[in-house]
Design brief:
Blueprint: E1 13-19, E2 24-30, H1 33-36, E3 47-49, E4 61-69, E5 84-89, E6 105-110, E7 118-127, H2 150-157, E8 172-174, E9 184-186, H3 196-255
């Protein structure tokens, strides 16, 4: 492996490690340059071994998910540079949020290759090692909010379509800031819930659509009937005018 050395760059870095299995996160400061060399020249989404980072990470496998340099500029996936670059970004690009429709802006972003100029690197645990890391793998952080969509609630509790989803919605307790008030619970509004009211609304819309179709057919038939009548009258007027002209021409010839 070829290492790139940068002058005047501090070796100390913050590793923000996330454990997606239990929702825990932990920040670790590492000042040893030899431990950090295993991360250099790696790109975002590359997997690295945790053994060089320390004995507590023995057997762990991490995936690089991002980072930022000392000035706070974030790493951007797809920019194959180990330095900062300026790119013209628009809506849909990462590291940029447009304020107006169709707006584009040239922004400074950090390349996706890890180097010594980074101050923080984000890692995600792919494989857990032998020993637990305190605050990262020995606990769990429960989700604050439960699912809102009806099908997701059914999937979570393994329900059938006959079961009432409203009885299984996850409620959370809210403690008021003012003293003396009792805590209360809040529940999300269930999305895509099929109720008698929604079925009635659906039937009403179908009925209105059918009535509109029938009315359109009747209006089209009436218009076709009126158009045929107007065309017949127009043809009769043309025939009458033609007869008058032919009779007038015959009378003028007879007088001569």
């Amino acid at each position: 492996m070829v290492y790139k050395w940068y002058d005047g760059v501090m070796a100390g870095k913050t590793l923000n490690i996330a454990n997606l299995a239990n929702g825990c996160q932990k920040s670790i400061e590492i000042d040893d340059e030899l431990k950090l060399r295993s991360l250099y020249d790696k790109q975002i989404s590359n997997e690295v071994l945790g053994d060089p980072l320390g004995d507590e990470f023995k057997g762990y496998v991490f995936r690089i998910s991002g980072g930022n340099d000392k000035q706070g500029f974030p790493m951007k996936q797809g920019v194959l540079h180990a330095s900062r670059v300026r790119l013209l970004l628009s809506q849909g690009h990462s590291c940029y949020r447009p304020r107006r429709s169709g707006e584009r802006k040239r922004k400074s972003v950090r390349g996706c290759i890890v180097g010594p100029d980074l101050s923080a690197i984000s890692l995600v645990i792919v494989k857990q090692g032998e020993a637990d890391i305190p605050g990262l793998t020995d606990g769990s952080v429960p989700k604050r909010l439960g699912p809102k969509r009806a099908n997701n609630i059914r999937k979570l509790f393994n329900l059938t379509k006959e079961d009432d989803v409203r009885k299984f919605v996850i409620r959370r307790e809210v403690v008021p800031k003012k003293e003396g008030k009792k805590p209360y619970t809040k529940a999300p509004k269930i999305q895509r819930l099929v109720t008698p009211r929604t079925l009635m609304h659906k039937r009403r819309l179908a009925t209105l659509k059918k009535r509109q179709q029938e009315k359109s057919k009747e209006d089209a038939a009436e218009y076709a009937k009126l158009l045929a009548k107007r065309q017949k009258e127009h043809r009769e007027q043309k025939e009458e005018l033609r007869r008058r002209r032919s009779s007038a021409s015959r009378t003028s010839v007879s007088k001569k």
